[in-house]
């Protein structure tokens, strides 16, 4: 294994530079750990590494020395030492950097609150503002003309006392630049100590703009509804008047047609049923007219305005028979059969019991009424 002094000058210079850089790195790392108050074991590791590297740096030979320091030692242990130092620094520095970012410090809290678009501030039980982000500071300056130190300065502007002396816990403030903020005050407990205050300022500019648009739209809709109701009332009166007029006209026409029909019946009884069927409204549901005034004998029924008209002639010579099939779904006649049935022995055999029953009443009636009650002289 070659001694360190047998290496070329360029390599020995590179070793010296790397050793110096390692010492600087370990020194900076140790100072940082001491400032952060990390665990003693971590400080001890950095301290031992720095001691070894620093000792190697002191014992490092000057150019041309062959019998002092590290010259007689093999160069491989020196290279291993530098390699281990590089590994230690490459692991320790990123780890400490990660811890730095994850650590909660007053500076990190201040930086985080300043990054918020919402204004926020905290005050202790005595009313002193302990933390206030930049947004809240700027808002406070626009409202009060100064940067407040006590929470009461904000209370006076944001939450004025009411008639009962009590203050509201929220308030809306309109700024000259058009910005609208909603301020909320809340009591919080910090480390078991009550009386701390938190005030937040939320940006509701867009929400307020939308609210104003909705209110304007609601007012417009209310006015439209008012006009529609007025028009509906007028339409109701017009419709009521129109319906009343139509009813009068319909009543007048119906009475007129009825009088004409009565006149036609009196003048021409044979056509009365047909004219009556033509006048009837289909919505009334009349399906059949069985006439008898004109004593007309109809072998087949007439159909006028979807109404069937039949008659069975004079007296009791014949009777009419209707066989009707009704469509219950439509509540209308489906099919029908009409026939004239003569009253004779072939179609209607005599019933002796019924005939004797009628004869008793006929005899009693004839005895009572079949007599002369007066005579007229000529």
Task: Fill in the keyword field for this structure.
378 residues, alpha+beta, 5-stranded antiparallel sheet, 3-stranded mixed sheet, 9 helices, 10 strands, elongated
Q: How does this structure look, described?
A:
This protein is α+β, with helices and mostly antiparallel strands. It has 9 helices and 10 strands. It has helices spanning 9-36, 40-59, 75-102, 106-114, 134-144, 151-158, 205-267, 272-279, 352-369, and strands at residues 119-123, 129-132, 170-174, 180-190, 193-203, 288-290, 302-304, 307-310, 318-327, 332-342. The strands form 3 sheets. It has a 5-stranded antiparallel beta sheet with strand order 2-1-5-4-3. It is elongated. Residues 63-68 have low confidence and may be disordered.
Rg of Cα set: 60 Å
**What's the average pLDDT?**
80
Give the SSE string: HHHHEEHHEEEHHEEEEEH
Q: What's the count of strands?
A: 10
Q: Report how far the terminal alpha carbons are from each other.
A: 187 Å
Task: Report the helical percentage.
Answer: 40-55%
* Major beta sheet summary: 5 strands, antiparallel
Total helices: the number is 9
């Amino acid at each position: 294994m070659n001694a360190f002094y047998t290496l070329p000058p360029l390599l020995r210079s590179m070793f010296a530079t790397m050793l110096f850089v390692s010492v600087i790195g370990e020194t900076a790392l140790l100072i940082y750990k001491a400032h952060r108050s990390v665990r003693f074991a971590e400080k001890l590791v950095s301290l031992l590494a720095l001691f070894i590297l620093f000792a190697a740096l002191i014992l490092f030979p000057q150019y041309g020395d062959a019998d002092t320091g590290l010259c007689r030692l093999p160069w491989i242990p020196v290279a291993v030492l530098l390699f281990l130092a590089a590994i230690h620094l490459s692991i320790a520095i990123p780890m400490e950097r990660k811890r730095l970012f994850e650590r909660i410090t007053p500076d990190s809290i201040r930086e985080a609150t300043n990054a918020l678009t919402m204004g926020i501030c905290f005050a202790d039980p005595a009313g002193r503002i302990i933390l206030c982000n930049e947004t809240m500071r700027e808002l406070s300056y626009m409202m009060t003309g100064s940067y407040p130190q006590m929470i009461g300065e904000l209370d006076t502007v944001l939450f004025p006392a009411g008639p009962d002396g009590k203050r509201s816990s929220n308030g809306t403030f309109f700024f000259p630049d058009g910005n609208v903020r909603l301020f909320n005050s809340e009591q919080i407990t910090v480390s078991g100590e009550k009386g701390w205050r938190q005030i937040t300022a939320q940006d509701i500019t867009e929400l307020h703009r939308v609210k104003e648009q909705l209110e304007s739209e609601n007012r417009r809709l209310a006015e439209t509804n008012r006009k529609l109701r007025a028009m509906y009332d007028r339409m109701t009166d017009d419709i009521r008047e129109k319906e009343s007029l139509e009813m009068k006209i319909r009543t007048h026409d119906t009475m007129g047609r009825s009088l004409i029909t009565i006149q036609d019946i009196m003048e021409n009884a044979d056509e009365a049923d047909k004219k009556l069927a033509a006048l009837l409204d289909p919505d009334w549901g009349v399906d059949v007219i069985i006439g008898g005034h004109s004593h007309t004998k109809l072998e087949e029924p007439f159909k006028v305005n979807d109404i069937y008209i039949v008659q069975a002639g004079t007296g009791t010579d014949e009777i009419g028979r209707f066989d009707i099939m009704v469509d219950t779904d439509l509540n209308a006649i489906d099919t029908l059969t009409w026939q004239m049935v003569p009253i004779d022995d072939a179609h209607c055999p005599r019933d002796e019991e019924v005939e004797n029953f009628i004869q008793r009443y006929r005899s009693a009636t004839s005895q009572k009424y079949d007599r002369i009650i007066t005579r007229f002289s000529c």
